[in-house]
Fold this protein.
Amino acid sequence: LVTGVQTCALPICKSRQQLALLFKHYPVLFNVVDARNSVHIRWIRHMGFTFVAEHAEWGPEKRLFYEFVRI
């Protein structure tokens, strides 16, 4: 046990740590998510991303996708 060091084994904590590492190399992060994927959309919002566009016919199945970004 190391005193004075706070650790978190929860997936959300690991996600935040990984996001911080990505921002050291990339000033802008963006991607798209399937609009049907409500669990991941909630996680993306929780991670501080902003949804900036809707793509009504994305991919081979022409499904609705949301574009998100964090600067």
